[in-house]
Specification:
The protein is of the alpha/beta class. The protein is built from five helices and three strands; from the N terminus they run ααβαβαβα. The protein has a single domain, classed as Alpha/beta knot (3-Layer(aba) Sandwich). Strands 2-1-3 form a three-stranded parallel β-sheet. The chain binds S-adenosylmethionine. Keywords: Cytoplasm, Methyltransferase, rRNA processing, S-adenosyl-L-methionine, Transferase.
Length: 147
């Protein structure tokens, strides 16, 4: 959720997005956050959830990013990606806005994934996640990036 124009993390995200193009079709979708629109936090999350779930297609595996989710190591994440490839699934990783993700998004998720038990700003979570997706593809290909 939300655009990243901070200049802090976005160059790194762009770099990994361009590296990922060698391995897969990758699209970064920045949906407008509802939290700045004078809605109560709960209402903002519900509004954002409707937009997120409205984009879900039958072939998608939704991965809800949440610090309370399951923790995988990089090799385990690479196996998850490989399994999605084998099953011809599109992975839709969703990072929440300031208020986090609505329960309905977590309920609809194929996997709720934690990057750590610590709360990260969502723009930093985006950078960490995309690096891990890139790393996972290099693991699948047996390339030396992951040591
Ligand atoms: C600022 S955090 C929201 C925190 C919110 N208070 C909550 O309880 O979810 C914004 C988003 O970044 C992502 N995020 C932050 N820390 C994370 C972590 N450790 N693991 C996975 N995702 C994380 C999640 O998608 C979260 O919805």
């Amino acid at each position: 959720m939300g655009k990243d124009r901070s200049g802090l993390f976005e160059p790194g995200v762009r770099e990994y997005a361009s590296r990922l193009e060698h391995y897969t079709r990758f699209e970064l979708v920045e949906l407008p956050e509802a939290s700045g629109k004078k809605l109560k936090p709960g209402d903002a999350k519900t509004a954002e959830a409707e937009v997120i779930l409205g984009r879900l297609k039958p072939q998608d595996w939704l991965v809800a990013m949440d610090e309370r989710g399951k923790q995988l190591d990089s090799v385990e994440l690479s196996r998850y990606l490989a399994k999605a490839q084998t099953g011809a699934k599109d992975l839709l990783f969703v990072i929440g806005g300031d208020e986090g993700l609505d329960e309905s998004v977590r309920q609809a998720a194929h996997l709720t994934l934690s990057l750590s038990r610590m709360t990260l700003p969502h723009r930093l979570a985006r950078l960490v996640l995309i690096e891990q997706i890139y790393r996972a593809f290099t693991i699948i290909k047996g390339e030396p990036y992951h040591k």
